[in-house]
Design brief:
Blueprint lengths: L1 H22 L5 E5 L3 E8 L11 H22 L3 H23 L3 E7 L9 H31 L2
Antiparallel strand pairs: 1-2, 2-3
Helix pairs in contact: 1-3, 2-3, 3-4
């Protein structure tokens, strides 16, 4: 399941990025749901929020570490299905953006939330964020369950 989700995320991410690069020019703005969401094609040479531009090697290294960590956790701990879904989202997103950095040198971003002027992002970014949020929620939820069961033992 983890690797299937990662493959689906990676394939969709790369397909959408290819379509954007093939049908738009950098800086071109296409209203999708005015005035909320636009397609705005940019090539991001940095990380999230365009930090550390032109440090491509660093982001490729970080992606390799994330990919290795996901595979290690899957093999070593045999996580629950909910954790495997979250890890699949993170893995697919990391592979998608790393692929851009290796083959293009920059990450293709295209979603602009105009109504809050949020930095432009892509599907891989969304999947990484969603996976991390799911992992955090699952961790807190599991910790709370364990904490509750420990207090019941005190009775």
């Amino acid at each position: 399941m983890l690797y299937g989700i990662a493959l689906l995320v990676f394939a969709l991410d790369q397909l959408i990025k290819w379509m954007v690069r093939s049908h738009m020019t950098p800086g071109q703005l296409v209203p999708v749901l005015p005035p909320w969401v636009d397609l705005d094609y940019i090539q991001n040479p940095g990380g999230a929020f365009s930090i550390l531009p032109h440090h491509t090697w660093l982001f490729i290294l970080v992606a390799f570490v994330v990919i290795a960590a996901v595979i290690y956790v899957d093999i070593r701990y045999k996580p629950s299905p909910s954790i495997r879904i979250a890890l699949g989202l993170v893995l697919g997103g990391a592979l998608g953006n790393m692929s851009d950095r290796i083959f293009i040198g920059k990450v293709t971003d295209y979603v602009y939330l105009q109504f809050i002027h949020f930095p432009i992002f892509n599907l891989a970014d969304v999947c990484i964020d969603a996976g991390v949020i799911l992992l955090i929620i699952r961790t807190f939820w599991q910790g709370k369950k364990e904490n509750l069961s420990n207090h019941e033992d005190d009775k």
